[in-house]
Amino acid sequence: MKQRVFSLAAALAIAVACLAPVTVRADYDHFDDVPARAWYADAVNWAVLSAITSGTSASTFSPTAICTRAQTVTFLWRMNGCPQPGKTATPFADVPAGSYYEQAVAWAVEQGIVKGVSATAFAPERNCTCGQILIMIWRSEGRPEPEMPGEVTEGWSEGDEKDAVAWAESKGMLAYGDVPAEAFDPSVPCSRGMAVKYLYDASFRFVTTVEQLVDALAPCRNICLAPGAYDVTEWVMNAVAEEALEANPYVRVDLAGDGFEMQIVGLNHVSFFSPTHDPADTCLTAEPRYANVLSFIGCNDIKLRDLTMGHTPDKGQCTGAVVNMEDCGNMFLQNLDLYGCGTYGVTAEDTAYLYASDVLIRDCSYGGMSLYRVPSAVFTDCTVRNCREYDILDLNDSQVRFSRCTFQNNTWGRFCDFIGGAGSTVEFFHCTFDEASFRAVSFFEKDGMTVNMEN
Fold first, then answer.
1. Phi-psi region of 343 (alpha: psi -120 to 50; beta: other; left: phi over 0)
2. Are 72 and 133 spatial neighbours (Cβ–Cβ below 8 Å)?
3. pTM for the complete prediction?
4. Closest CA to 171 of 181, 156, 179
5. Among 262, 370, 257, which Cα is nearest to 316's?
6. Lower CB count within 10 Å: N or C terminus of the chain?
7. How far apart are CA 391 and CA 279, in angstroms?
8. Is 43 helix (H, G, I), strand (E, B) or coil?
9. Which tens digits make up the pLDDT trace of 176-190?
10. How far, in Å, CA of 422 to CA of 59, rounded?
């Protein structure tokens, strides 16, 4: 695998730069007490979209309200995908059966993330301090060593609080708004805004290899891929040879015609993105013609942004999309360059919602996309060009809207068409076509298909 080499200082600089908004929508706008430019606004948006927390009412988030121990441990439990504890019952008399935090407390105690205030009491309504929540997050991350010596903790007594705060400082988690890291006080009660900000910052993973990318796959993560080339197939073949596939429950490898492919399974609320915002800088490739470059199965709320993905140049004939989605929901593709030889740039089946913007699909062997049973797919400012062989848009039992999209230099076989499939409604709004595709859309007639064009 060819990778660009970074100095430690450069890598850390990019990693800190990754602490930037990655969400597609600004759903926190309906909270009257969360200004769009507040230092916690992006964290609130991420936490609500990731189902970590919700508002305290339909219009308020209460960012300055103090978090209790029960609330904090529940946020952390949800961020980790709501794992089931071995035993739900706890020894704590003040953790009622059926309470919203019962399973969260049981899991956190079982994992060594938090303890009770005594052998029989957890004190769920006691305020949680900033130091305490950082200890919980640090323990849940496996007690990692800080990436650089801590200045804030200089002179502190040895212990989990010092290690946790030093780690958080090395990740750039302590500073917020106009408040520098040096002002951090672990004894200050942790507000709801601060709690989601700490969790949001901790969700970031800066990766430079496919191995690190796979290790980072977990719910509610923001995965920043350093500029460079990522050969997914090389990792797959090594994993198959070393039988190292049981380390992460969200990854599996499956046979794909002339090779193997990596599949991401059951993963929710994850963003994959490049720190430079230029797709040309970060490229993921797969070598087998029939393998999907990235395949998502049973996933929800996945965002891919500012990346190039594609296959090796050998023309494929069978399966093998660039981005494949099955039984998914809320999939967001933004500022991507998806190229062949794979059969399609995008394939989706039984996927509840698909939104793509500024996506280039080019040089694919079969066509631009193939959608089956996608009730809502929206493509905005996208381009499909130089695709060939079969139906360029293969749309089946789906509702698809193209807005300000461009279709250029695509060709299809004698028994195929620009639009193929059955049972779909397709809308084109202010799109740009070459002559052949414009004629195909203008005179489209097929039973069971509805095509509308407005330019």
1. alpha
2. yes
3. 0.86
4. 181
5. 257
6. C
7. 27
8. helix
9. 888 999 999 999 999
10. 43
